[in-house]
Amino acid sequence: MRIVDTKGQLCPAPLIAAKKALKETTVGESFIVLTDSKTSFDNLSRFLKDNKAEFKVSESDGIWTLTVTKENGDRVETKVEDYCDPVISHFEKGNYVVAITSDKMGEGDVELGQLLISNFIKALKDLDKLPQHIVFYNKGVTLAVKDSPVIEHIKDLEKMGVEIHLCATCVNYYKIENNVAVGNLSNMYSIAEVMASAGNIVRP
Amino acid sequence: MKVDLLQMVEYGGCSAKISPKQLDEILKFLPLPKDPNILVDIDTQDDAGVYKVNDKLALVLTTDFFPPVCSDPYEFGQIAAANSISDVYAMGGDPVLALNIMMFPAAKLPMEAYADILKGGFDKATEAGVRIIGGHTIDDFPPKYGLAVVGYIHPEKIITNAGARPGDSLILTKPIGTGAILAGHRLGMVSESDLTEAKRLMKLLNKSGADVMKKHGIVGATDITGFGLAGHTLKMAKASGVTIKINMKDVPLIGNTYKLIDDGCIPGASFRNLDYAEQDIDFATDLDYNLKMIAFDAQTSGGLLMSVSEKIAGNVIDDLQNNGLISAAVIGRVTVKKEKYLSM
Fold first, then answer.
1. Does A92 touch chain B (CB under 8 A)?
2. Cβ contact, residue pair B333, A190, below 8 Å
3. Could you read off the pLDDT tens digit of each residue along chain A, which spans 204 residues?
4. With contact defined as beta carbons under 8 Å apart, do B207 and B304 qualify?
5. Does the residue A75 lie in any domain?
6. In the annotation, is B14 catalytic?
7. Could you tell me which residues come within 8 angstroms of residue B72 by beta carbon, excluding any fewer than 6 positions away?
8. What per-residue string of b and e applies to A84-102 under the rule 16 or more CB within 10 Å gives b?
């Protein structure tokens, strides 16, 4: 088995050696990293854990031996951290942005309009391709409060990776800053940036 | 004799700071002095202390010193001085006076190196309009240098890290990556051009950024140094009682910093900073690991981080770029406080 001896080396040298070995090792194979520094050992452990590499540790006479086994795929994927909520798994996104500008959908009866906007937001979750962003402005921001009928759907969309932007000026204007339950407060510059870079803008 | 200061140190620059976690535990036991004239103290973990003299004048006090970040003594002096003065700029003050703080191994290094470090500090201070009126040297190994700086500020025009408001955009004035570049340089992994650019940025005074802040009446800012972009942003979010979202993809990086991190060149200080801050951070599941670690890269003499109201962000960026801060960019936004103080 390949042995990466980093004794006498200080960070980041041991990490560099370990990362190189990880890249060069094929899936299912193992290699050993040696270090004589507690700090380097701690940082190596953290680094390998974050890089989703399996490893076992033994220590004797101030020398740490990490036996690392490379898992999954030929690329070292450096994603998923388990710090936050369990997130609904991967969803594909289309090149479009949804702008919610009112708490109703379409002209006409108020109650019907409110029902329609709820159904619309709920339906977004079922589309093959989710929007990149949903921008709420003017009366639209009132849908993002705690007791909104669609709050759970908007939260789901956020967990699915859709960025939710609420117009900060509007949130302040309608005095709902203490009730907002989802999304990020965005200034008009960010909103304009999001909309200007969208392939399409969908306005229900 | 050509002196190479880097041969003498394990950690250079702000990487050599004590762990913020340890620092917090020690500071808990030190009572804060009570005095109505103390306008800013360590309570909000701000960059410098501010003491009111009268209704029109307050003093900004700060100090910073560290072991060498580069081989050349003159350049080290310039960088250390720019870094020390930066805290005054971050608070919106005008730096005025300074004292040298020096530790120098007289038996191990020629006295020319000593003189060159001081000359570098003197020239940088002069550029900032600061008069160095004294100092103190101790015979010690390895060398360390910095300044204790006093600045003037109007008591009602203090810029603090408690001034971020929901809806603000977050602007960073200098690209990051000095920690990784300095560590990589010592392992022969960094190109000459990236090293030169990192040194240029570390020597660059935050004066031009501070002038733009004052022009636009910005009230919330800090500078990015040893605790990294994430660490200093977190302090700002806590002091302001808000949540800040950093878009790591928008954060400007020096040269090939990303490649360096991808090769595993992650300095020990990054792990210390991560360890300190991660409990307050919501990491997106698709956040790239390398970008995450870059957020914790300890900066030496890093840029200003400003919280700017929505209306003026575009103008502020224009002004910064017109003043030579060509990498200045909006890197995040401020929202009402959510579960975690920081998300990225």
1. no
2. yes
3. 899 999 988 888 899 999 999 988 888 889 999 999 888 898 899 999 888 788 999 999 899 999 999 886 534 444 333 322 333 445 778 889 999 999 999 988 989 999 999 999 989 988 888 898 999 999 999 999 998 989 989 988 888 888 899 998 999 999 998 888 898 888 888 888 889 888 899 999
4. no
5. no
6. yes
7. B3, B5, B116
8. eeeeeeebeeeebbbbbbb
Instruction: Give the DSSP letter of residue B104.
Output: -
Helices (H), chain A: 13-24, 38-50, 110-124, 151-159, 168-173, 188-196
Structural domains present in chain B: 5-153 (3.30.1330.10), 169-343 (3.90.650.10)
Examine the domain organization and report whether A196 and A121 are in the same domain: yes
- Is residue A118 within 8 angstroms of chain B, CB to CB? no
* Within a domain: A176: yes
Q: Which domain holds residue A55?
A: 2-69
Task: Give residue A151's identity as a one-letter amino acid code.
Answer: I
Between CA B245 and CA B208 the distance in angstroms is 26
A44 lies within 8 A of chain B by CB = no
Alpha carbon distance B131, B128 (integer Å): 9
Number of domains in chain A: 2
